[in-house]
Amino acid sequence: xxxxxxxxxxxxxxxxxxxxxxxxxxxxxxxxxxxxxxxxxxxxxxxxxxxxxxxxxxxxxxxxxxxxxxxxxxxxxxxxxxxxxxxxxxxxxxxxxxxxxxxxxxxxxxxxxxxxxxxxxxxxxxxxxxxxxxxxxxxxxxxxxxxxxxxxxxxxxxxxxxxxxxxxxxxxxxxxxxxxxxxxxxxxxxxxxxxxxxxxxxxxxxxxxxxxxxxxxxxxxxxxxxxxxxxxx
Length: 233
Prior knowledge:
By secondary structure, the protein is of the alpha+beta class. It has helices spanning 10-17, 59-74, 94-106, 112-123, 148-155, 162-169, 172-188, 206-209, 212-232, and strands at 34-35, 48-54, 79-85, 132-133, 138-139, 195-198, 202-204. It has one domain: Glutaredoxin.
């Protein structure tokens, strides 16, 4: 989802996501992927950190989720997959889902199973955390959007205690994590979701990579490139 343009028609997002998947003959910096100016060291300098900038409330991220699972399975040894949630669209509950992600992570509840389940709860038929009206394909009225208490009930199936989840969600540490995420996303120059950042140095998204599968392939190429560079030191 583009940062500055809310996507109200989910079908339009899906159509755009189904771009040609044929890989370019070679990956070209400045075309399919971009260098991040003044990259900062990651929090795991001995590994290659692959980061998805996303939102559970982003329809394009929901469409990319099967590819993300494939990427997770194919990442080589020496890499680690991390997530940074964006908060751009309050009318689509992104700040709530950003808070929910950091809370789940702090409580040890974020894992591939719960991550995928969150997308299904938001985008699946009769999902308990739906943000779009299935009839109009437009965001629900603000009063009807899921609240953090609703998300806490969802995470109960993964072992969360709803009261503890809500208290943690409203804590100083989670507020700080959210502010840090917003600043980091800006520093990386990310303006749409999903976007992949490789080791804090390289940025790519489905439009630059020319398709979701190409995004997976290009991420693997860059991750292996950075692994080789680390081993050569």
